[in-house]
Amino acid sequence: MGRGKLRIYLGAAPGVGKTYAMLSEAHRRVERGTDCVVAFVEHHNRPRTEVMLHGLEQVPRKQLDYRGSVFTEMDVDAVLLRAPAVALVDELAHTNVPGSRNAKRWQDVEELLAAGIDVVSTVNIQHLESLGDVVESITGVRQRETVPDEVVRRADQIELVDMSPQALRRRMAHGNIYKSDKVDAALSNYFRPGNLTALRELALLWVADRVDEYLTEYRSEHRVSKIWGSRERIVVGLTGGPEGRTLIRRAARLAEKGAGGEVMAVYIARSDGLTSASPKELAVQRTLVEDLGGTFHHVVGDDIPVALLDFARGVNATQIVLGSSRRKTWQYVFGPGVGATVARESGPDLDVHIVTHDEVAKGRGLPVARGARLGRSRVVWGWLVGVGGPVVLAVLLNTIDLGLANDMLLFLTVTVAAALLGGLFPALASAAFGSLLLNYYYTPPLHRLTIADPKNIVAIAIFVGVAVSVASVVDLAARRTHQAARLRAESEILSFLAGSVLRGETSLEALLERVRETFGMESVALLERAGDVDPWTCAGSVGPQSPKRPEDADVDMPVGDHMALALSGRVLPASDRRVLAAFAAQAAVVLDRQRLQHEADQAKELAEGNRIRTALLAAVSHDLRTPLAAIKAAVSSLRSDDVAWSEEDQAELLEAIEEGADRLDHLVGNLLDMSRLQTGTVTPLIREIDLDEVVPMALGGVPEGSADLDIPETLPMVAVDPGLLERAVANLVENAVKYSPADEPVLVSASAMANRVEVRVVDRGPGVPDEAKDRIFAPFQRYGDAPRGAGVGLGLAVARGFAEAMGGTLNAEDTPGGGLTMVLTVRAVDRLPDLATATAERQAS
After folding, report:
1. Are strands 707-710 and 69-73 parallel, antiparallel or unpaired?
2. Sign (positive/negative) of CA torsion 403, 409, 415, 420?
3. Each residue's pLDDT tens digit, 456-506
4. DSSP 8-state class, residue 94
């Protein structure tokens, strides 16, 4: 059975109609005869959405008890047993109630897909993990329920459910999204027009990027080389000269004129000639293009125009921006230049902009020919001069008698010209052909291939020797120039590679993408295996259809005994493998570094766990022994037959047992809470509650009259886990009572500030210096001379851990007039935080 297909309805905000669209799709499929069931859909008491559930089979939900309440979640086992063709699963980013089969709903969906069941689901753009910081900067709300981007990216279909901010606000005002008592707060906070517009743009751009990825993959799979101008992509050709900044800014202005415009600056390092690129200037231009929102690319190419056009077509660019040539007028005899060539060969689908600048015609050194060492055009001209030149010269000399010496000098001039243009072989051909013509036409006896005078034999031999020598020198110079340019190009690539290490670019995918761009490949993969006979596994890859084995790749570069860098796209020349080897070695280093970092993080966690366990054992052996010893002594006294205890004595012993048990229960509770926090198993169940429902219950553990309560009735509701909030406040109050004077009761007050509510626990004790305020929240820390019997030093650590788990904060401040004030800050409901899984998040469909 194959893997099921995933279809996702993506929305910019709650209420745009994702669930409605999903249910409409379900009705269409049922009408076509598809076996479709509702695995989990939350209608949030919206009448129109609830009506859409009629006529659809619903799998009964699973009921779970948590903290004295009953919650319902999707029953994964029941859906798997029912085995429908299509299952509807709402709210992909939802966090399941503790005790569920999986922690997140998207993990439940993965099980359904693995069983071959197609799934239709919904998600909001703010729930994508990579956009958490962006959404928080827009709305001021940190999204706690998120889904990994890769889960959504792997979806077979992503459909955007869109609605204008004005229409969405009208739906809100009509009561079609939230209840009437929440409409005003929602419209003035989360659902402000600016927030909705920004979220809508974020959703549209994200979907556009995914569509662009699908288009690139399709064009690669179907070998489509023609440019499809679906969006404006502008490629800027850089030479490393100072004019590059002007070109980048010009391209950025062009990109701003079209929606979704993208700028890609590319520098092509020659491998067939000298360049005048300045590494410092390239670094400046790289920074500039990245500051303007573009990307910088470094490519090696033997033919600058061809490499530039290949890159532009490979990224589906629509425009190319080039600078006017810096060559002087006389230098155009060597060719039309890069700009003219690119414009001529770009085709009808690629616009070329030639931008003028201050460096026009100021010179840039001799241009470098294309092709092999001397270039194809120079070789052709060399053969024409080497073969045709002697013929033309012979025709001219037959009309003029200049003497054998002058004739030989003229033929030698033609041979030298052929050597300068075409190198060794055209010059050898010219020398051989010229010597035959000299012998036939100008050396007695004439018109015969014989030589009567031995001196003429020496002259012709010298002529051939000089011609061959000059041709060899020119060819050697061309070879050395080619080698020098090749080494320079390699050094630029290696310098860039070293610079990426210094800049901290340690992502394996980024390095592999750099390899793909540099060598013009379609895909690159880093493969490894445990042993010589073990199968290959992919440690990282970029590009479509990356090779799974080195044998499947066009180029493979071994890295050690059990690792290889595999590239697909074309066969590389042997001269490129040296640079490729450096990339391969760097890829292995990056992979090892990532794994070592992961192991270091794990070791750090283990060390922290060991420290906590050691401290727990110390606490058990010392702090827990005191209440146990007191309980044991009291119980032994009561059971003793040697003493007749009075009723007062018995009551006192029983009271001691009760106090010891309460103290032991408190210590064990804190130890268990700290253990849960350290292992990351605390999952808050956020609800909307009033503080006066929770805070008074937190004062039950302190003596009556030791704490005063001031909770105004006008406070907004807060989004918290009631159990965690109660434990946190209780720990704060108990700590404050412990250090506060007996005649000074602790004050517990609350107040609203912007979108948050502050709970303050104020005592009049000795206070804590500023340098120790953070240290008192560390586990197993007691401030001052607190005795062993005062606890294990976990109360404040547990309180802060619970506060942060609920998305709040806990800090210590000085009490005016002396003492310490603990400030517990939680989120108010009027901002509709995404933390409220039972309210705002479940209304996000």
Report:
1. unpaired
2. negative
3. 667 667 777 777 777 777 767 766 776 666 666 666 666 666 666 555 555
4. P
What distance in Å separates the CA atoms of residue 574 and residue 601, rounded to the nearest whole number?
A: 41
Give the torsion through C-alpha atoms of 75, 76, 81, 86, to 10 deg: 100
Other residues' Cβ atoms within 10 Å of the Cβ of residue 274: 15
Same domain, 143 and 217: yes
Which token pair is 92? 């992909």
Q: Is 808 helix (H, G, I), strand (E, B) or coil?
A: coil
Do residue 63 and residue 183 come from a single domain? yes
Q: What range does the domain containing 191 cover?
A: 6-222
461, 590: one domain: no
Angle in degrees, 0-180, between the axes of helices 454-502 and 404-422, rounded to the nearest 10: 20
451: helix, strand or coil: coil
Listed in sequence order, the residues at least 6 apart from 619 whose beta carbon sits closer than 8 Å to its beta carbon are 667, 671, 780, 792
Q: Which of 190, 222, 254 is the last residue of a domain?
A: 222
Q: What is the CA radius of gyration of the chain?
A: 40
Residue 113 to residues 73, 88, 101, 118, 789, Cα–Cα distance (Å): 18, 12, 16, 6, 56
Residue 344's CB is within 10 A of a number of other CB atoms, namely 11
Give the long-range contacts of residues 217-220, CB within 8 A, separation 24 or more. Answer: 217/544, 219/316, 220/522, 220/543, 220/544, 220/545
| pTM as predicted | 0.38
Residues 145 and 212 in one domain: yes
| Residue of 101 and 782 predicted with greater confidence | 101
Q: How far, in Å, CA of 27 to CA of 21, rounded?
A: 10
- If asked whether residues 433 and 406 sit together in one domain, one would say yes
Last residue of a domain, one of 555, 582, 605: 605
The mean pLDDT of the chain is 78
> Which of 801, 419, 795 has its CA nearest to residue 619?
795
Highest-scoring range by mean pLDDT, 131-140, 269-278, 485-494, 816-825: 816-825
Q: Which of 117, 200, 94 is nearest to 842 (CA)?
A: 94
pLDDT at 761: 92
Q: Please tell me the distance from the alpha carbon of residue 677 to that of residue 85, in angstroms, as a whole number.
A: 41
**8 A C-beta contact, residue 86 and residue 36:** yes
Structure tokens at 42: 């939350």
For residue 165, what are its two tokens?
């901010």
The pLDDT of residue 704: 80
Handedness of CA 769, 775, 777, 780 (dihedral sign): negative
Tokens of 617: 């054992």
For residues 11 and 547, what is the distance between their CA atoms, to the nearest angstrom?
A: 36
Give 554-575 pLDDT, tens digit per residue.
888 888 778 888 888 877 775 6
